[in-house]
Amino acid sequence: MTELRVGLLGPSGIGATHATAIARTDGVRLVAVAGGRPETGRTAAERYGTPWFTDLDAMLADDDAALDDDTTLDVVVVCSSNDDHVRAASSALAAGVHVLVEKPLATTLADAEALVRAADEAAARGVVAALVSQRRFEAAHQHLAGLLRSGALGRVLVVSGEVLWWRPAEYFAAAPWRTAHPTGGSLINQGVHTLDLMLWLAGPAVEVRAVAGRVLHGTPAEDVTAVALRHASGAVGSLVTSTAARPGGDPRLTLVTEAGTVELVGSQVARWDVDAEPPPPDDVPAGGARPDGIGTVGHERTWQDLVGAIREHRAPAVTFHDGLEAVRVIDAVYRAAPPAPVTGENA
């Protein structure tokens, strides 16, 4: 079967994770790299054995014929800055290229809604649009989702998430958009993974209350948020995120259902007080508490699903509609609780 040819936009950071995941996934091949600083982009392209383009438009146009006829693009993966996701994904969809977008889908609700409309229109032409939410593919989350769908756990009563991570000064210096609001805060850039899991397992949010602050790093973006949710299912949710929690720890997710209580730390089960059902098998640690600790297994599973969606002419496991629900909550948080000024000794 012919391999799907992939163009990578944004070779640094999470882009390198995707390059590794692509290399480990059957049915896809990285054939082009675009974006980033020239020296970084060219170095990455040399490492992967591909041409480098200054930006996505140049990669799609290929005016210099750097790509052969048999290596034109089938898929673009968008790993550029958060504020570039909408423009890049829209361009790829307009070109008729399948697209995989890193989280978050967008940084504003209006942009997310526009991108969902573009994806729906592209789907009618057979173009697949998928969002990266790799933690959904972890064994514990898949197991929980299956039990909830089957009714074995009854209703979700309470869902609670905690993402207390540490990001040092050099992390922010490496990419200025990480310091900006609303592109780089602890909710939209780190907590969004756990938020997505909460919405996936307990249903969309219908009420949002929050506080957000800049307690340590002194950037326009918040480094701590506390969010209270009411889900359409009736469940009550809470989520705390931070990039100021030295030294950082694995994210926590607690689910209280009619059948009992489950607590996950990272991808591992820390508590399984559900007598009627066995716990899931152990899985590969997810990482993420530190930028250099992010694993590739979830991304490999994301790529496997994308290949299946394209080959089988079906929707991917994580759609732009899923990403819209997360952005809807994030937008409500930032409107209700813009990051408060730095106080105390950090002022």
UniProtKB/TrEMBL annotation:
Keywords: NAD
Region (Disordered): 273-292
InterPro entries associated with the record: Gfo/Idh/MocA-like_OxRdtase_N, Gfo/Idh/MocA_Oxidoreductases, GFO_IDH_MocA-like_dom, NAD(P)-bd_dom_sf
SUPFAM superfamilies: Glyceraldehyde-3-phosphate dehydrogenase-like, C-terminal domain, NAD(P)-binding Rossmann-fold domains
Top-level lineage group: Bacteria
Keyword Ubl conjugation: no
Pfam families reported for this sequence: GFO_IDH_MocA, GFO_IDH_MocA_C3
Domain Gfo/Idh/MocA-like oxidoreductase N-terminal: 4-125
One MF term in the entry's GO annotations: nucleotide binding
Domain (GFO/IDH/MocA-like oxidoreductase): residue spans on this chain: 142-263
The keyword NAD is assigned to this record: yes
Protein's name according to its UniProt entry: Gfo/Idh/MocA family oxidoreductase
Organism from which the protein derives: Cellulomonas fimi
Upper lineage: Bacteria, Bacillati, Actinomycetota, Actinomycetes, Micrococcales
